Amino acid sequence: MKLVSIIDYGCGNIRSVFNAFNAIRENKNISVRVTNKEEEIKRANYLVLPGVGSFESCIKGLKNSNLLGTITQKVKDDCIPFLGICVGMQMLATHSYENGKFDGLNWIEGEVKKMQKTHERLKIPHMGWGNLELKKETAFIKKLKTKLEFEKVSAYFVHSYNFLTKNDKNKIMTTDYEQEITAMISENNIIGTQFHPEKSNFFGLIFLETFLELEKIL
């Protein structure tokens, strides 16, 4: 049985992410753990990094957890599937400019900057459903498209900052909110979503299910 470790570093929307993976657990013969234990991260076949709150609090929480070295080894050296959600995706960037300038993990090059208020009626944070537009068809996306009609897909967002990728190859999906918003990024075994798959109903569960097939897809 394979292990999904959801990393608990004090800043994630842990319960809803756990519940979403638990809903598809039986079909995939997996065990799901919320953990801050190095041993459970070492044993993991999949790593999930949720993130809620400010970039600064999340990146500091992750670095202070004493788990980052083990996480990096599993993701960068062992190349196991990794999913960062919301601020968990933003932390993959080179820098964030939320309330200052802070270094990210630099696993996917880019910068996190505040969304532009293009007119007075535009509400920030961006909260609610957004249609997804495909920018690049990866092996993951090809598999995802076999399970649903992609033209009708929408996902749930709650955020005020946008991940601006340095390289277009890493920008997989976007949504429109009076500006282009990066909705999904990817680099080999690393996936990040600005949207919340755990709150995105049927599409979200299919997305997570496909993530659990990533090692077979790559």
For the record, the CATH class is: Alpha Beta
Low-confidence parts: none
State the end-to-end distance.
Answer: 20 Å
The helix tally amounts to 9
Query: How do the strands of the widest beta sheet line up side by side?
Result: 2-1-3-4-14-13-12-9
Instruction: Compute the number of strand runs.
Output: 14
Could you name the CATH homologous superfamily? Class I glutamine amidotransferase (GATase) domain
CATH topology: Rossmann fold
Tell me the overall shape.
Answer: globular
Radius of gyration over all CA atoms, rounded:
16 Å
Q: Taking all residues together, what is the mean pLDDT? A: 95
**CATH architecture heading:** 3-Layer(aba) Sandwich
Domains (count): 1
How much of the residues is beta strand, in percent?
A: 25-35%
Q: What is the helical fraction, as a range of percent? A: 25-40%
Features:
9 helices, 218 residues, four-stranded mixed β-sheet, 30% helix, Rossmann fold, globular, alpha/beta
Topology:
Blueprint: E1 2-7, H1 14-23, H2 25-28, E2 30-35, H3 38-42, E3 46-49, H4 55-64, H5 68-77, E4 82-85, H6 87-90, E5 95-96, E6 102-103, E7 110-114, E8 126-131, E9 133-134, H7 139-145, E10 154-159, E11 161-165, E12 171-176, E13 180-187, E14 190-193, H8 201-211, H9 214-217
Parallel strand pairs: 1-2, 1-3, 3-4, 4-14, 5-7
Antiparallel strand pairs: 5-6, 7-11, 8-10, 9-12, 12-13, 13-14
What does the model show?
- The structure is a single chain.
- The chain has 218 residues and is of the alpha/beta class.
- The chain has a single domain, classed as Class I glutamine amidotransferase (GATase) domain (Rossmann fold, 3-Layer(aba) Sandwich), CATH 3.40.50.
- Helix content is 30%, strand content 30%.
- It has 9 helices and 14 strands.
- An 8-stranded mixed sheet has the order 2-1-3-4-14-13-12-9, with helices on both faces.
- A hairpin with a 5-residue loop joins strand 5 and strand 6.
- The relative contact order is 0.17.
